[in-house]
Amino acid sequence: MDVEVRHLRCLVAIVDAGGFTGAAAQLGVTQPSVSRALAALEEALGVRVLRRTSREVLLTAAGERVLARARRVLAEVDDLVEEARSGHTRLRLGHAWAAIGEHTVELQRRWAAAHPDVALQLVRTNTATGGLAEGVCDVAVVRSAPGPFRFDAARFDSVLVGLEARYGAVAADDPLARRRLLRLADLSDRVVAIDPRTGTTTVDLWPPDARPEAEEVHDVDDWLAVIASGRCVGVTAESTLTQYRRQGVVFRRLRDAPPVPVRLVWWRDDPHPATTDLVGLMAELYRDRPGARRRT
User: Fold this and answer.
1) Average pLDDT score over the chain
2) Core-most of 48, 88, 237, 280, by most CB within 10 Å?
3) What confidence score (pLDDT) does residue 86 get?
4) 90-163+260-295 has which CATH code?
5) Distance separating the N- and C-terminal Cα atoms of the chain
6) Is the distance from CB of 123 to CB of 94 less than 8 angstroms?
7) Could you give the C-alpha distances from 80 to 58, 124, 131, 242, in angstroms and in order?
8) Are the beta carbons of 99 and 93 closer than 8 angstroms?
């Protein structure tokens, strides 16, 4: 026998109501139904979760653990149901590092004005798909590393919405911080901090005979920390500058590095109805920014 959601709801109701009678009233079922659901849960788990006395119902040690997990599972189920019932009243935009940088606030304001019935929710998830494959967003902002854009075209659809210049990041007391512009060659004899899952940089940016050493980090906070310490330098998209100002780290534009493609990615077989509108607005923001032609 498998554990069912109704079994977990029954356990939580018994504990919260202080007994079987109260649980039955809370759930709108009969008391024997509550007893059968609890028995089914204990049979499925292979342990006793409640100890009954003449005056009260107490959790066993195993029951304490099961109850805590049951509450979390039921909360997730309730969220799932709410999301399904809400239809398309919200659009979750996932990203791994920096949303859309300097355009993030303007995007939110324009979206709210144009689509008052569809809330735009930004979700940061440090995965290669910006949370899309994990199911935590409807559309994701993805900045690709050097080389061809690699996504499973059978599962995902995508479109290029803009380009961002690359910047070098160095410690504030680094001699390179005194320069206005940098070249990739200025960093080739340094250790470059790289996030292999979600970063926009690999050593392939440099020629094969001049590639720097690399140190792997796990997210943008780790990346900033090792750069501020002076142990590493970094290369990133310009969106990072506006989203993650950090004391001890300065950014200098790289004059000879290719721009970073910014894409929107979504599920091919289940696109959010507002995806096309989001694509149009983001492409407009990137196209209309001051100096866009010069940067790209």
Assistant:
1) 90
2) 237
3) 66
4) 3.40.190.10
5) 61
6) yes
7) 30, 19, 16, 34
8) yes
